[in-house]
Write a structure and sequence with these properties.
It contains 16 helices and 20 strands. It is an alpha+beta fold. Helix 2 runs parallel beside helix 16 and helix 6 crosses helix 16. The chain binds flavin-adenine dinucleotide (FAD) and 2-acetamido-2-deoxy-beta-D-glucopyranose (10 copies).
């Protein structure tokens, strides 16, 4: 890991704080130390967006500090809970163990305790604990609702920069074979009979109607990929880059519309890291983390800033509060789960025996030949379709299909995606120390409920078709399936990017088309919170594309 000279300066900073007065920034009881070292850029949050942004900044030789509240999850980033059978790997690295993170205790260790929906508080962000499903966005994901400057033709070069380093793969095993594809043969055979078609989702990302594909995973060199593996090592080669983990940013410190640094909280207490003259702060704390930092910085609805203040955060004087619709309009994909019994003989990989080291066949294939089922993620087929409800809106659906408990049981995780019209509201809880939903983002509109009902009815009809030899398990009727929806964990839109300045009447946007917070001179946001629309597939690929595009605009602005 890159060692920064900064840590020793924390102590020095404490001495300086005792000698110099920072009282104007802290009217309350606590005195905070101030760093001597300053940075051209401070990036808040070491998830996919933050790592990409910080690495691209480091390439320009600007001095950049990346602050992550969690720890590193891999050996090279400081983790020491390695696998019993390979002391260079943690369960995070091995694609086949992506379903075992709860079992080994890492999911609870890495998940945030202060967000409205599930989010990861670990270096690498959501990409460290997710199922690695990697869906290249279709053009409509940008062309429908993103503003000028953010259409597919504008962001395509950013997508290509991402795919060059982090392409994902549908064939991760080094021997070129697919393992355990019984589900694919059964389900593809059935989908063919009802008129769907097989597509190559990477070559033809716009084919999203009655189409199915092999899954593409965020895997590279037989390990979980993502910016932690594909960008961070590049940044760490640069002298201008510093990473600090275990550092939670409470708020942006600002003088009026100019950010001057950030207030951080570590095991050593609270202190301030300062920007160099003309420096900038880039928020990448995620769709729930970045709104929280903004509320604490006096930016957002008045009620939320007031809650942060009553929780003891040193928000700016009220005259400097910036009224923006932070947290309004947060969106997610609702999931409908349908389990179907087939006559197949496949079953879930037994990860307990992989973790224990007793599944020697799969472990040897992985360790010695970079091959086998452990190079693959959970899913075996991904499908898409769309429908049009009576509001004339086209809504898309994705199904991610894999095994579950019970031989031959096909688990279909079906999401309603791009085109859905519901949104929620993210606020602070009454204690002012965690985000919660004032309104959940799911199935709030009649159009969404009608469209979801039609889609689920289509699935139920398919799997009840006697010729198909399937039977639906668990919830079997449409209304029960609809009502049992769960969170897709693909949150976007809580700091919407757009041309309609949210400070003005009816304005809905928090950041402008250069990803700069309205009303601030040098504060930017690059993570999932700025997306004005939901993608057709899982979020991580488009989140990375947008971070690449946003940091390019920021560096040239
Ligand atoms: C359990 C789960 C499963 C998922 N499955 C998939 C999937 O299979 N495929 C897919 O495409 N997408 C999936 N996603 C979604 C995807 O991972 C996210 O869309 C993506 O990670 C969002 O990236 P981000 O950079 O916006 O934010 P995040 O990934 O949330 O990263 C934010 C980072 O900021 C840090 N942070 C937050 N607050 C602070 C603070 N105050 N100070 C310092 N650091 C801070 C966090 O620790 C984190 O590292 C899943 C997400 C989760 C949580
Ligand atoms: C392993 O890492 C944890 C958390 O970072 C740390 O507290 C512990 O001391 C480490 N253990 C060893 C043996 O290095
Ligand atoms: C928020 O504050 C409440 C009340 O003080 C406390 O019980 C809770 O643990 C805190 N939550 C977090 C995430 O810090
Ligand atoms: C806390 O201070 C000690 C002593 O200066 C330092 O070694 C350590 O890295 C600091 N921890 C954090 C999280 O900053
Ligand atoms: C359905 O599958 C069962 C095995 O589960 C098999 O015995 C039966 O022949 C199949 N029926 C048809 C119509 O294919
Ligand atoms: C998985 O493997 C473990 C350990 O080898 C074993 O105890 C357990 O019964 C297996 N589980 C299943 C569902 O086969
Ligand atoms: C452990 O995994 C690494 C990375 O995949 C591999 O290079 C190495 O050979 C493995 N070690 C053993 C002992 O199998
Ligand atoms: C939907 O489109 C049809 C045909 O163009 C039109 O008749 C109808 O009024 C539209 N409905 C809505 C709600 O816009
Ligand atoms: C399973 O069902 C399919 C579809 O009906 C049928 O073609 C096949 O023969 C069955 N397989 C077995 C092993 O029964
Ligand atoms: C649908 O299923 C639920 C749960 O299994 C059940 O309670 C409900 O009565 C069913 N509704 C209809 C219309 O069959
Ligand atoms: C804001 O929206 C309301 C209701 O749609 C409308 O009456 C009002 O004129 C709008 N104000 C501005 C400044 O656009």
């Amino acid at each position: 890991m890159h060692h920064s000279p900064f840590t020793s300066l924390v102590a020095l900073g404490s001495l300086l704080a005792a000698a110099t007065s920072t009282a104007h920034q802290f009217p309350s009881t606590h005195a905070s130390s101030v760093s001597e070292e300053t940075y051209d850029y401070i990036v808040v949050g070491g998830g996919p967006s933050g790592i990409i942004a910080a690495e691209r900044i480091a390439e320009t030789n600007k001095k950049v500090l990346l602050l992550e509240r969690g720890t590193g999850p891999t050996v090279s980033t400081g983790a020491n809970k390695t696998l019993s059978w390979n002391d260079t790997l943690t369960p995070i690295d091995v694609p086949g163990l992506s379903t075992a993170l709860s079992e080994v205790g890492l999911f609870s260790e890495y998940v945030c305790d202060d967000t409205a929906g599930t989010a990861a508080c670990v270096l690498g962000g959501g990409c460290t604990i997710n199922y690695m499903v990697f869906v290249h966005p279709q053009e409509a994901d940008f062309n429908d609702k993103w503003p000028q400057g953010w259409k597919w033709s504008d962001v395509e070069p950013a997508a290509n920069r991402l795919y060059e380093r982090n392409p994902g793969t549908s064939l991760p095993s080094a021997d070129g074979k697919r393992y355990d594809y019984g589900i694919y043969s059964i389900l593809s055979g059935f989908l063919d009979t009802v008129g769907w078609k097989a597509v190559d989702q990477v070559a033809n990302p716009n084919e999203k109607y009655q189409a199915y594909s092999y899954p593409v995973w965020n895997v590279k060199d037989e390990k979980r990929a993502g910016p932690l593996r594909t960008y961070l090592p590049l940044a760490q080669q640069s002298k201008s880059f510093t990473l600090r983990t275990g550092v939670k940013v409470n708020r942006v410190v600002r003088t009026g519309s100019t950010a001057t640094g950030v207030e951080i909280q570590t095991a050593n207490g609270t202190s301030i890291v300062q920007l160099a003259p003309n420096g900038r702060v880039v928020l990448a704390a995620g769709a729930m983390g970045s709104p929280h930092v903004l509320f604490n910085s006096g930016i957002g609805p008045q009620a939320e800033i007031a809650k942060a203040q009553s929780a003891g955060i040193s928000v700016p004087a009220e005259k400097d509060w910036i009224s923006l619709p932070v947290g309004a309009g947060i969106k997610d994909h609702p999931i409908f789960l349908v389990n179907v019994q087939s006559n197949g003989t496949f079953s879930l990989l037994n990860t307990t025996s992989v973790v224990a080291g007793t599944d020697t066949a799969d472990i040897e294939l992985y360790d010695e030949q970079d091959s086998g089922i452990l190079t693959q993620g959970r899913h075996r087929l991904v499908f898409w379709t769309s429908n049009v409800a009576s509001d004339n809106v086209t809504r898309f659906y994705q199904g991610s299909v894999g095994a579950t408990t019970g031989e031959g049981v096909i688990a279909i995780t079906a999401y309603m995606t791009h085109g859905l019209t519901s949104s929620g509201t993210l606020v602070l809880n009454d204690a002012g120390n965690a985000t919660v939903f004032e309104t959940v983002p799911y199935l709030q509109t009649a159009g969404d409920r009608e469209a979801a009902t039609d889609f689920i009815q289509q699935m139920v009809d398919y799997y009840n078709n006697p010729a198909a030899n399937f039977s639906i398990q668990g919830y079997t009727n449409v209304s029960a399936i609809l009502d049992s929806y769960t969170a897709g964990i693909h949150f976007v839109g809580s700091n919407k990017l757009g041309t309609d300045d949210g400070r003005l009447a009816n304005g809905t946007s928090v950041v402008d088309t250069n990803a700069k917070v309205y009303g601030m001179d040098n504060l930017y946001v690059v993570d999932a919170s700025i997306h004005p629309d939901l993608p057709t597939g899982n979020a991580q690929a488009i989140v990375m594309v947008v971070a690449e595009a946003a940091i390019a605009k920021i560096l040239s602005a």
